[in-house]
Every structure is written in C-alpha cells, then in structure tokens.
Amino acid sequence: MDKLKRAFFIVLFSVIGLNVSAQQKDNSSSNRGFNLSYSSDLGGFYFQDASGLQLAIEGLPYEGSIDEATYQLGANDLLTVEIKATQNIVLRSLLINSSGEIIIPAIGAVKFDGKTIAEAEEILKQTASTVYKNPTVNISLEVPKAINVFITGSIPFPGKYVLPAQSRLDLAILQSVIEVQTARSASSIYFPTYTSQLLGKREYSYRNITIEHADGSQTSADLVHYFLGGNLDNNPILRNGDQIHLKQIDRNTPKISISGAVSTNYDIEFKSGDTPSILLEISGGLTERASSNELFVFRASNSGFEKIVVPFENWDSFQLQANDRIIVPESKNAQLTAAATIEGEVEVPGQYPINNGETTVLELLDLSGGITQQALPNAAYLYRGTGLDNEIPNKFNAELMKRTSNQVAQGLDYLDLETKLSRNRVSIDLTNRDELALFKLFDGDRLYIPRDEQTVFVFGQVNNPGYFPFINSNSSIFDYIQRAGGFALSADKERVFIIKAGTATWYKPEETTLSSGDRIFVDRVPVEDLNAKRTYEIQKAQLRNQRTQLIMTGITTVTGIITTLIALDVIKR
User: Fold this and answer.
1) pTM to 2 decimals?
2) By the 8 A CB rule, do 61 and 105 touch?
3) In this structure, which of 21, 242, 301, 439 has its CB flanked by the most CB atoms within 10 Å?
4) 3 state SS for 360-426
5) Contacting residues for 333 by C-beta, under 8 A, at least 6 apart
6) pLDDT tens per residue, range 443-476
7) Cβ contact 541:501 at 8 Å
C-alpha cells in the first residue's frame, strides 16, 4: 500500500509540473479542461473541472435548495467532492456523465446514478478506502440537473417538458395550456413567471391534479388553493420523470361555492376533502362584518334543500359534498366603520363617524361645530360615496331607457350627454334645517360648503366677463352687464339668464332674485341665424345692384332711341 501511495504522489507531482509548464506557455488553456493543483492554504490538493463549470453557467435556473434526503443523483448533476485523509482533496465541478458516473483522479469511475447524496457519500467512502486510510467524504450538489416531465390530456400542448430543477407544478401546467415564449441569453434560459394566467383558463381541472412519480407513488395538487389561498403544499416541486394528466371540466363537473361576508365570492370546482376552512382560505377570509361563530351550508336533498349550521369549532373538520353552497352571514352585532367628510367653511372640517343610513346632514353639521360666517349656505353640495349602500334605486341608465324609447337620434344623444354628468352630486340648502334633519348620510359621503366671496359672475356675450362685487338683491342684472362692458355685438338681449349658486338652475331675471354667488349669462344670437341674416343682406344688396343696372340699361336704351329719332328728323329736313 505504501509503495502504491508513493507512486501516486510521484505521478501527481509530475502532472502538476506539466500543468504549470503548460500554463506558462499558454495561460488560456488552463480553463479548457481539468485543473489540478496543490495548495498549502487548503492543506491538500484542489481539482476543478472547468468543462463542468461552463455547463453549469449555461444551465437552467432552479428554485430553492433541494431535499438531500430524497433527491436522486443522475446525469448532468454538478458536484463538489471533499475527501479528508492524510492529505485533503477538494474536487470542484464534477459532472455526472450520461452513464451516471463521476471520474475521480487516482480513484477512477464511481457510479452515483439513482443514489441519494448520503448513499453516494457512503459509496465514495468505501471506494476511496482502497487508496486512502480512513477517509472522510462530503458531497455537495452545486447545480442540479434539469428534469423531464410528461403532461397528457385534452390540452393544447401535451407532451414532454424539460424544466429547471426544483420547478413547481404551475410552471409545467402553464406551458401545456398557454403558448409562452422563452428567451435564451448567453448565460441562461428564462421561463415565464406569471403562472397566475392559468386562472383565466377555466376549462381545465386545476383542483384535482394527480402527479404519478417514477417510483410508482402519487402526489395530489390543488392549484386554485395555491393561487388564491397561498398554500404552497398544493403546488409541489416536480421530480424527474413525473407524469401529469390534466382533465377538462364542463357543466356537469361538481362545483362548490362560498359567498356572503367573505372577501371574494367564488364558484369553483369541488374537490374531495373540502372543508369550510379551505374554502375560506380560497375566498380570502372573512370580512369585518362576518359572523365568526357559524356559517351555513345549503345542500340538496330529496325534499329540496337542507340548511346545515356549522359552528366555528367544526370549520376544519366538516366534510363538504359536491354542489354544496356555503353562505357566511353578517354578524348582527358588527360595528360598521362608516364615516362622512365635511369640508369648506365649517368650524372643524374633517372626517366624522356616522351610523350608516341614520346620521343626518344636520347632525354632521353639529358635530363639526356649524358653518363659519364666511360660508355660502345655499351653494353647498354633497357627493355620494360609491359603495353599494349608496346605490340609488332608480339610478339613471340611458342604455336601458333607449330600449323602449321613441326618441330620434338627437334625443338619444341628449340621453348620452345626461349620463356623462355627475349623478352623485346633490345640492343642499343649509338654510333649510327641516330638510337637513331628513337628509341621511352613508359611508363615503362628502359635504362641501363653499366660501361666500360676495361676488356675481357675469359671462357670455359681454365685452368684459368676470367676477364683480355683489351689491344687493335689489340691483338690476343690467347694472352688472354694464359693469361687464355691456352687450357684445352678437348678444341676444332677449336671452339673459340668472344661474343660481349651488343648484345651477337657470332662471329668467323676472323669475328670481339675484344673490351672492349667482351667475349672469348672456346668450348669443345663434350662428345659424347670423349666417342666414348675412346671406339675406348679401342677396338684398345683389338685388339692389341688379335693379340699378336694369334702370341704367333702360335709360341708355331710351336715350339711344331719342338720339336716333333726332338724327332721322334732321336728315328729312
């Protein structure tokens, strides 16, 4: 044995000397094959397979760390081997070849195919013992091999898929039902990451997937539970040689649903073993209004439908059946977190708590300390929140109204215009306390009270439109028009209006009293009338010119006749 060791070291140092000489001749050649050197820092020999390392750099990406207790080594796995004996040896980037073997200097070929890392360590220890005395062996998996999986069923792209090691089920399934593009760079292959696209392909069964492994065992998967409930166990890591069969679903596929006081209502495929807890995870959990004491399961029976009350302590164990319907009721004692906002000219603006549908505008004003002296109470308005509680029963729907209307095209265009206006704005006169005591508030409502600037806005066909100081209610609107520079040339003096603050209602001057914040609008003569008038004036001028020309022509003719007669009379004489 001692003679064999001495011979090995003589050969080894010879190889090292040749390697150093080769490096001096051509430094680049050191990266093209084996690299074996002695290092006093490492206290032994260091070996690196540069070819294996290059393959690893160009390999497939993978997720997380592998399970050393179950992972089976095979072709294309990249290993690091450490042998501790009288001299330590570190062997980096050893690639398991297609025969399932690695080649170790001075030891030879060692077969690792199908072995776990622990089993491979024991095999290598026994083999190394023929060369080294009492060796200790450690094996690390640097880069795991890619895996082959097989997907079958009535899907667009069945067949074999080569995936990165540690790939999960969703990645394989995605590529079998959706055409995805893979982009290869100089260093790696990138696969799609947004596997949630699968949720849009509802014609396939994602809750009842069975994976058949090469060793004959099976694993079940539920991708819906994974995507919606975040349960990673239902999206298992695939193994080399796995077979997956994907089924289609139709109207006869058993379903199950959950609705009521949950974050999201769902009607999904039923899976044996479903419990209320699983469905609650998929739906995103209970809302703040939900009852946490019980839920209802409605189940078809021979006599109709049976209502089953499931208490909280049985949510994890109650076994649901196909086509069960789960309803989560709202708690009768739930404290609703409703609030309304008041802004503008109030003593203490802000967001105040309210009882949804019970608190009134008058109560909200009292909570905020009332309006300030600068407020314009008759111009206040309220914006309704957008929640379902604020939905107006007779909400304006132009499309529905068009169905039975006899409107012409112009009338339908007007309906479309109405739908573009804010239907959630409500004008409120804060001077009418009786009305305020009846006006109920809902969550999300916002009350705004503008400032009284003591102005009147004059616009339209006036020469100098703008804001002008409000004098008093007895002032004539024509005084304000004069202060705005008077009527413009195209003004229609018969169409002057007062637009009230807050409600934006139009009145003729004789129908209302002018107030601070109101607007005075002067309409113009319609463009069509101006064009018609101008055309008439042009035609009238043209007719006048034609008549003048006709008279001049007549005068010229008469003059010619008279001249001719005088000439004839002279000739006769």
Assistant:
1) 0.57
2) no
3) 242
4) EHHHHHHHCCCECCCECHHHEEEECCCCHHHCCCCCCCHHHHHHHCCCCHHHHHHHHHHHHCCCCEE
5) none
6) 889 999 999 999 999 999 999 999 999 988 888 8
7) no
